[in-house]
Amino acid sequence: MPPARLKPLSDDLPPEVLRLAIYLRERFSEVDESVRNYAGLTGVDATSIRRYLHGERIPPSSFVTKLLTHASERQDRSLTLDEVREAQNVRLEALRAVERARLRVEEIHAQAEVAEAQKTEIDERIQNFVDLIEALDGEMGIVEGETQALESSWSRRAIEKAPRAVVARYENDRKALVRTEEDIKEEIDRLKIDLEEAEAAKEVAEQRCQVLEDALKEAQRVYALVVDMVGRPDLNLPQSIVAYVDNRRLRWGGIVGMCIGPLILYALPAYLGVMYQMVSADSSPLRIATLIGLVIPVWFAFGIRRLERAGLPRIFHFVWAAGATAVIFLACTLLPYKMMFWWS
């Protein structure tokens, strides 16, 4: 499939991933094969290849090397070391971009936690200042009351007639109350200044939290675009394991496996079909449970098809598995009626 027939690349892709997708499209155009044919040639799922070419998934290193090899073979030339090195570097840069996106989310999230803790600390300071000011206002009221009581208990004439020692004691008490009142006023004024500074700091902290929240949303959006781009790493399996997987008889466990496979694929839907008709129409929950049981053979057949027929789209495997199971199930739903007809 030529690159012109592929859908346009998303503008939201990171530059490194975009560069990788463009590079893969250029190499794939040199192969001059459709996606489906190339999937059959390489044994890679066609959907995965489309994701590689659309920048939706970062391919494993082995796929990149195979693509370069096939492209060079189509052009009747040898694959050079520089080409392999360049391709793998482009792929690694895309992987680093994905990791940087994840780290960016973690970094902003950590900064947001610190900013939120700072805001909470400022809130506590503000509350402490408010409580202290309220307490000092209460003390101020008490001192003012004592001053008024002291002054009201002594008239000017009483002061003039009172002994000098009594007058001196009165003056000392009044001055002490005045000094206490002034000290309380100074402390209140100082606390109000601190309160204003704390409120200003809270406003800055709230703005900081909002900026980090917006940045975190953007970082999460970018990370959501790239988080699924990295698949599982290549597995360098020994040839003995590869032969084991490719050998159907060995893979399913010899005689036991050869019995379990057909039982799940064919006997189970047949059994469910018979049971579906034998259950009375009033037992709707049992019939629903029977239909739900069909998921097991469909899923099992789908997995076998994908393993044994790699390269074809998943929808083909699913349609085959669901269709085969449905045919067996529907055929066996008629079996009880035919048996009753024969017995009668």
List the helices and strands and how they pair.
Blueprint: H1 15-31, H2 35-42, H3 46-53, H4 61-74, H5 81-153, H6 156-161, H7 164-226, H8 239-246, H9 248-251, H10 254-278, H11 284-292, H12 295-308, H13 314-333, H14 335-343
Helix pairs in contact: 1-4, 1-5, 4-5, 5-7, 10-11, 10-12, 10-13, 12-13
Structure commentary:
This protein is mainly alpha-helical and 344 residues long. The protein has helices at residues 15-31, 35-42, 46-53, 61-74, 81-153, 156-161, 164-226, 239-246, 248-251, 254-278, 284-292, 295-308, 314-333, 335-343. Helix 10 (254-278) runs antiparallel to helix 12. Mean pLDDT is 76; it is low at 232-246.
- Give the biggest beta sheet: none
Q: Look at the helices and sheets and give the structural class.
A: mainly alpha
What is the radius of gyration computed over CA atoms, rounded to a whole number of angstroms?
41 Å
Mean pLDDT: 76
Distance between the termini: 62 Å
Please count the beta strands (DSSP E, at least 2 residues each): 0
Shape: elongated
Low-pLDDT ranges: 232-246
